[in-house]
């Protein structure tokens, strides 16, 4: 027995040790990851982010260097309060900030770097650079920030900001403190623009001193520079659109019908993209984000869904011709509206009876109610008719996401039989239940970009290219889906009468006052009723002003949709703005300075203030236009003078 | 002539093979732990591995010397060797050189020699000599006191020189005494004291008393000998509680702060996060770095000279006391298990050979060798893996250092010589 004590002890200790080693190295051990290894310093080399040019080669977005103070919490040497205070003074932060930031970084990860103070100015950097060695666990990371060469197009260009943890979890390429496209083309073309960062692995010793390359540098990579891109935006047209939208809210989308390229994409109110660069970024972003009234971050050209109103009538005319339920010369009578059952859809006074041409340029509700009923009732049941109608409408890119390269979007809404089956029950509804569809109200919703695309499809006589923002990528071709035409369900020959109707809108119809000499514009005004909940009550507000157009009539160069919130009737603001945009794009100058002056001189801010005034207010006819202050007008004139002269 | 020839091959080659394997693998790891940049000169005397090359070279000279002496020499001169060792330890108080707060070295030019490394085999010889005396009976208190005096003399001298780690090693002789007849009660008392100490520090006096009382009460009602009175049990309980209290007093008043902290870390006594954070930078730093290095090795290890934490010298003292963490990082679970197996095999082999010895002197000495190696291995490896509180002692044959390597080599090879001679001893 006595012989066994030491022997068993030895064997037992051996077994315990092997078990412990197994626990440490195999069970608790993990796959070796050089990124997790605190003995290896990872030095990132951020490549140049690709530049952004407009369609004419004008530089819109370039870069500027920026310096972040990064921290690896577990490598931070404890400092006494005097040292901390000194460090805080260098960084221009308070002692509380210091502890809060350090806690937050530790909370994220004690061994991975986190940004401590982001985006130092060049001056601060110069001072700090020399003293940084003293503070173990902290280092300076150079990155490149955006330098906007323009004050326009914030919604188009977007911005870059620090990645958050959920992105890092999904895409390990990104490390804490990295910048990523947050909105606009920065977001959709992130991978193209950012390139690939290079990395150097350096062996450290325990005093945090570099002692040489890790594995002779065999794992190191060089940065791959980001690619420059050219976007389809015409920056002069964009700037002009933003100027027109000043003091108003709404969206303008201009598309080149022959390619689907977006020429301008205006959302009002807009903001200066330079606000979202540098140390003030988060402060400014919050201010924009929290503005729940004007919602500057809400891209009204892409995200705002409105009932399309009268421009939608052109589609009903096309479907009726395609389905052969009317001919262009069929006439319907209109006596201030259309009666169905004991209800009536109102219309304004005009000649009667109405054929297609008159129906379009006078925007006759009764005519389109009749046409719409014929379309639906052609089939045995309203459900079949409805689905057939819905299919035609959707072939114009309405009712679904456009699936393009813009960072935000909305599908809009186009009803089908199932929409009404759900609402009323199967076979328990009739065509008249859905009659508002005839005039683009009711269940139909569309975004400005969808309407502009619709105009492009009409202008092209039956097809469109998916509207997109990318024109060229350095050493790459743009996606095929942007260069393949999409055909509507309407045959080419049916477009001519409808286009003639739209041309007459300018010639003798609702838009004759906004004609532009020398350009054959085809368009359609629209007015959309809208409501807001004020103090729990549904209250009607002044109508939205809508205009959809393309020009010239044959072989169109531009298709446009303009939406002005609470702008009242279609030609009042939207029509004027559409004409001005078209003229500016095609002629490069403005001959109808009267239109321009009207748009620039008037503001709708008082209109937007009404719902928040807590006082009763009038709408539509009861409103009066207000002009901008002389100072504002001077600012506007200054901006106008710079456009095209930069 | 013939006899001379055969005797030369009577050495236990398995032991020698295990020794060579450990020294060789140790050297490989010292190379990894101490190299700076590329290794160009294995004899670079400015770096530990260069010196170790020389130390190992000289070791073989030493081995030949030890093996060529008559086996009888060691038994005959055991007492004299022991006395020389004691004198050399005493001499440190006058001629010693302070290194890291311990006065354990003689400085001869640029070389240093640590006599405590040599005192181990000397003590083992003395213990073997004393116990193997025909008149010695380990069951008597007189002889127990005398052997205790033999081991505690060098132990206390070393403790006075501020080298607490090396002192603990002398407790290894307990295994030898137990093998040679020390009463079982010592074993029970030793185990009880260890458990009492841990309980007292970790859970406090009240809980410890309750545990001790419950055990004794159970024992009292299940006792076989009815003669033992209640009073005896009460006495044992009182002593136990007194000891538990004494441990606390010792911990709080006698131990130095760094020693307290090592125990506190081991038993996880410290709950204050701020203080823990401070410990992480001080006492626990080595331990954390060492555990991290071992864990990061994974199953296969990172490969020779590929250990990032080793190359970056993250573990202080890695080529000496923390050499095992290099094995862990660069050779992984496979390599470090191999080292454990090599040590266990060596110790078991020595034990096996000891039991085969004809002379009691050889057997006791062999047991001493096995015990000392066992304690060194257990404490060092256990510490590096975080199982045992930090105690600064080297890993035999593995750690960098001339005195240590030579001390252990002499210790082992005297036994190899004694073993080879067993045939002649009747």
Largest interface: A-B, 37 and 49 residues
**For this structure, what is the CATH class of the largest domain in chain A?**
Alpha Beta
Alpha carbon gap, first and last residue of chain A: 100 Å
Quaternary organisation of the protein chains: heterodimer
Q: Would you report the number of β strands of chain B?
A: 3
Shape of chain A: elongated
Rg of chain A from C-alpha positions? 31 Å
The CATH homologous superfamily of the largest domain in chain A is termed DD-peptidase/beta-lactamase superfamily
Query: Please, what is the average pLDDT of chain B?
Result: 88
What spatial form of chain B do the alpha-carbon principal axes imply?
A: globular
The poorly predicted ranges of chain A are: none
Largest beta-sheet characterization of chain A: 6 strands, mixed
Organism (chain B): Winogradskyella alexanderae
Keywords (chain B): Cell shape, Membrane, Transmembrane, Transmembrane helix
Membrane topology (chain B): Multi-pass membrane protein
Subcellular location (chain B): Membrane
Q: In a few lines, what is going on in this structure?
A:
The complex is a heterodimer of chains A (646) and B (426). Chain A is α+β, with helices and mostly antiparallel strands.
